[in-house]
């Protein structure tokens, strides 16, 4: 791993950190990182999209404690004062949030607010996991944080997009009105070990199909592009932002773009074999193209993605 | 009043209608209309921006009942089955919602959801008062309902804009997921009797200044435009939409544009005297220009605004 070139949780005194969504893909990597740095972690999840095996990984750790709870109903923590409340709970992939639209909206509104209230009561800092989906179907490329987005407020994806936009708005309202010390990140497409193979995204689809020996599905002619951030880069950016007093949203993502056919070539290199392809028509709701402008993270956190796609895919396949 | 040219609540059997925000400007006009048509109305308000005198108007009416409650905490209605739950509760003018940003967000999220839950339990229909503010600072003029808007998700106005966008999203989620029979309107700038003179908008500012004998404040050179809908036109559109099964948002507003100096001339005509003006620099956050595309309401409801500005201003001044 790249040693931090800027202040981060790696160099801080031991912290007590509550993470909602601790059994999710990103949440579980935060738990791992913070425990490894000597911090105490309280994980909270209701397993609506998180996975019990991601809790089991840490249950034996002396500084880890787990609360099974739906943060929409409240966060049943009554222990010693917290330093951070980090709100990462939410269904985050289209198949999951479209299965649970009302729950997804609620974890953006009541869930975020319960986290903010807990942070406020403890004098703790609050960290919101927002998303590149707040940009919707962007008309500006790449997207800087100042871009306001192009989001359908009542379409089938709005449960996630509008839930997260609301989460940002209420986070800023608690910051401005009650002085809660807040952070907001907008996470772009991220992959790595422990991602769910049923999340419907292209890397997980390809990995799943390659491991099953099935042909990889290419929609359209495969020339559409995506960018992919390895989970460790995201976690490093989060850790650095925790050490900086900055309250506006910060993009964390990898701006390198790959066509679907480029991605197949990289996977073939990693797996050491040729992969068969199956072409299908582009679906009507093909996911939008988004690419982060990471100038703010670069300037503020001296952060940029370090893990090349070949390396990240290799690590992902090793630890699936 | 123009007789309805299309089905509306005027021709329906007696209904039992619960209205949140019944003591607000728009809410109180709905109460008046529905009681006048023979329906039963249950009003709910917590007076955060509504006014007790708007409840007092109807307290003696045999078909009116009032519940003082914060709909964010729940709607304490336990009576006979409702036909409609109409969610009009929210601070709605910039000075009010910026004074109560967290409450404004909550009435958009928990308040809307409590209304949806009540409607779902009663098998009632649900009517959401949304707003032209969901278009933010629009890049398209006029704004059709299909325009997705240009809204800052975390600026100082986001408590209202994002609260209402969330309200639309959760209304559609209840419609799609649970089959609740819903309606959504987007209300553009509306004026009339019982508007609060401290709401910070230009008509109320001008009326207030004219009645006090003070000069009217013109920001900039007075050439910027606004459009103004008289309350009775809005209420007629609401009543007609209740008679039609249409679930997508519908704009209700008056597309006629007036410059600030045109508005002064109309007021001078209504008041029969010349008004003194005082010019001040344009503020940095001058309210955005918005103008409704009302094609959908015209086609669907055979609705268009009937009340000219001169007439509406005369009625407003008579009944202040």
TrEMBL record, chains A, B:
Keywords: Decarboxylase, Glycoprotein, Golgi apparatus, Lyase, Membrane, NAD, Signal-anchor, Transmembrane, Transmembrane helix. GO terms for biological process: D-xylose metabolic process; UDP-D-xylose biosynthetic process. It is a single-pass type II membrane protein. Residues 17-244 form the NAD-dependent epimerase/dehydratase domain. This is dTDP-glucose 4,6-dehydratase. One of its GO terms (molecular function) is UDP-glucuronate decarboxylase activity. Its cofactor is NAD(+). Gene3D superfamilies: NAD(P)-binding Rossmann-like Domain. It holds the Pfam family Epimerase. It comes from Deinococcus reticulitermitis. It comes from the Bacteria. It is found in: Golgi apparatus membrane; Golgi apparatus, Golgi stack membrane. Its main location: Golgi. InterPro entries: Epimerase_deHydtase, NAD(P)-bd_dom_sf, UXS-like. GO terms for cellular component: cytoplasm.
